[in-house]
Amino acid sequence: MGARRAPRGGPxxxxxxxxxxxxxxxxxxRRNTLRWLFSGPLExxxxxxxxxxxxxxRASGRYPEDPAVREIVAELSAASPEFAALWAAREVExxxxxxxxxxxxxxxxxxLDCEILPVPGTDQRxxxxxxxxxSPSRRGLELLRDG
Length: 147
Fold this sequence. Notes:
The protein is of the alpha+beta class. The protein folds into 2 domains: about 10-95, no CATH class; about 95-145, no CATH class. The protein is built from 6 helices and 3 strands. Strand 2 and strand 3 (about 125-130) form a beta hairpin. The two termini are about 25 Å apart.
């Protein structure tokens, strides 16, 4: 078993890796939120997040012929009855803000506000995670930052 290498990049990249893992080490197909969401059971807050993410994918309908969009819809429809049902519901919702709740192995329970910012001229988005000042989630993020 090899030693884990430090995440590439500067302090922000290292903080992001401490929070969500080093995506540079993940296989490309594991870097997709939808694949991650539908790879296991949808319970609690994960169910609501899955619904919003599928509605956001449907909002990308300006690219109906995009092979990547068609591929992931076909793949997840075949693999997940939950995805197929959500896709068939035809909800459309562009994601701009949401709250994510998770249990992190180091930081503990986290409730994070997410701001999703489109990068002009691209299909990329920047996601900013913040926590309320003085909250346990803020202290958890500080623990990751300082660790």
